[in-house]
Amino acid sequence: MPSAVSEIPAAEPELAAAHHAAKLAFETDCSDVRAASAAGKVDFVLLDVRSPALFAQSHVPGAINLPHGKMTAHRMSEWARDTLFVVYCAGPHCNGADKAAFRLAKLGLKAKLMIGGMTGWADEGFAFESEAVAAE
């Protein structure tokens, strides 16, 4: 009798590759965001979609505070249409980043979710900032 792991056969490699590529088109992780920053290869805009008060307390270095409710066509027009936005919120228990990614997509903009959010960043042992001004 097979284990619970192997009871359902694994996908064929080509199907698995397509599945994971599609998943990675929607998300990135804290480690990749930090590595890009450390290497000076930030080719995205990092948006913290939590409240300005929470952002002021602590946020990922280099992030801009922009709650999803303030993501309007007018507000987002300050960036080029081909800008990649990476959004995050408190963590896995919060769907603010999903709401932000949805809103950006509805505005015709590209977005990826930084999985883990603040919780994931802390779990990785990465430092936070607390001195920056929220976007208005």
TrEMBL record:
Lineage: superkingdom: Bacteria
PROSITE patterns: RHODANESE_1, RHODANESE_3
Any Pfam family: Rhodanese
Domain Rhodanese, residue spans: 40-130
Protein name per UniProt: Rhodanese-like domain-containing protein
Lineage summary: Bacteria, Pseudomonadati, Pseudomonadota, Alphaproteobacteria, Hyphomicrobiales
